[in-house]
Inverse folding.
């Protein structure tokens, strides 16, 4: 049974200075990312979050559709306009987001999470959350970054075919999850973790790698046109995959990963 997101209950639990202090809550939108990418619609306030109960064209990486039942899950985006985050380690914002989602779930439910390169959160090898980061630029300078996050919260069944079998927090914990508590906890963790991108990026890499069960495994990585096999050896300081195949070492910037 779908529920309406209670902004007052959310605000009581939010303990941030910037992230989530400007909030937009709407019933339906084509895409929360697209909404925040347009300054004419959403403004320029750093840390703005947009929550939508339904996305008509919700999507993940490679424009895959993200199906989410209205009123049961969390589909939202975070706007960053502060240029201090747009450094050479910009890619680590993605890892900080996935890590924050994992830590929030661990804090609230004592569930063991796993992170799948580059941007998925798993429980029991099944996908519970995903991240999609998009940006706009002027010339070579990034102007705004939007972080889209989808979390399967109280949805219990999923239709369609998937690269990774989906699950929800309700399926994994056995109880109905209070969405307001989960979102507030995630944003509280995210605000602190985001600062680590600038001040202590090695901590993000360490914490992320501790939750990535694929490191050290023989994997297949596909970018849609080519598929490469090898050992997932490590991630570099920007979060890119180091793939080893016999004597060859290669850096992988994006792709779909599976264990072979």
């Amino acid at each position: 049974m779908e529920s309406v997101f209670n902004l007052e209950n959310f605000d009581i639990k939010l303990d941030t200075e910037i992230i989530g202090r400007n909030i937009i809550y709407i019933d339906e939108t084509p895409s929360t990312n697209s909404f925040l990418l347009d300054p004419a619609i959403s403004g320029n306030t750093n840390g703005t979050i947009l929550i939508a109960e339904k996305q008509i064209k919700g999507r993940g990486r490679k424009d895959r559709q993200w199906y989410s039942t209205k009123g049961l899950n969390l589909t939202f985006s975070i706007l960053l306009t502060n240029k201090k985050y747009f450094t050479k380690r910009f890619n680590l914002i993605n890892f900080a987001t996935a890590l924050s989602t994992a830590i929030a779930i661990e804090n609230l439910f004592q569930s063991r999470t796993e992170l799948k390169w580059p941007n998925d959160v798993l429980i029991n090898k099944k996908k519970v959350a995903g991240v999609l980061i998009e940006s706009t630029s002027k010339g070579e300078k990034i102007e705004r970054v939007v972080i889209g996050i989808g979390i399967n919260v109280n949805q219990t069944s999923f239709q369609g075919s998937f690269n990774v079998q989906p699950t929800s927090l309700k399926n994994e914990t056995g109880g109905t999850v209070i969405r307001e508590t989960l979102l507030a906890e995630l944003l509280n963790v995210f605000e602190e973790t985001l600062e680590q991108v600038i001040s202590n990026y090695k901590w993000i890499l360490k914490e992320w790698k501790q939750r990535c069960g694929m490191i050290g495994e023989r994997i297949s990585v596909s970018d849609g046109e080519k598929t490469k096999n090898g050992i997932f050896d490590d991630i570099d300081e920007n979060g890119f995959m180091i793939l080893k195949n016999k004597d060859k070492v290669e850096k992988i910037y994006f792709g779909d990963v599976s264990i072979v």
About this structure: The mean pLDDT is 93. The chain has seven helices and twelve strands.
